[in-house]
Amino acid sequence: MARTRRPLAALIPLVAFLAVLVPLGAGPAHAESNGGVKVMPLGDSITDGFNVPGGYRVGLWQKLTAGRYKVDFVGSLFNGPSGLGDHDHEGHSGWTIQQIDDNVVNWLRTQNPHTILLHIGTNDIYGSNPAGAPARLSTLIDHITAQAPSAELFVATITPLGFLDSTVRAYNAAIPGIVQSKVNAGKRVHLVDMYSALTPADLADGVHPNAGGYDKMADVWWRALRAVPGSIGNPALAATGSGAHGNGSAARAA
To answer: pTM for this one?
Structure first.
């Protein structure tokens, strides 16, 4: 039995170390805005962009700009390269679902986003109660939709890990049913399949994506946003500077 425990035990110090690191350049938001649709990137260090400053937000911003959409990333944190046109986000390194839940209502009140990109649960996988993560996610979604009922909430399955894949799969397998239950209740919630877009080869350290992995995440978010009318406004209107929000649908985006 000792032999079967050693690989995981050896990973625990590394995981704990990675979970508490805060990438260089992270700090309070600078409230950048181009007057566009407010989009909140919400989650943990993968949203922040560990290993690659800005993470998926860099590629997503480039796609939005090329598509002539006007979008205002919002959040209490700020980081990323100079080429990222808007550095604001709500990606908290090392945080669990519960930690996000404990703060999300205040963030939503302050930022009032029209669209929310939620990728959370990775730190719960190697926590003390991974089996309870789906229930915690469901509660988090309820709190978000209660506080921001007109916002479009995109809920992603989490990206792969280089270990504990069966635990990751079990958590991700519960997310479609959770999302569908919210849709059935009339909530503006959309499923985003992020897990299948990446492989362990897309990870820099077994936990966080490398540059190619973040690019794949950006593409998945981009396609999901475009599948829900109004979630990022209208590119034709954006080109003329009006940046209308429009009304979103409750259909699933994948």
So the answer is: 0.83
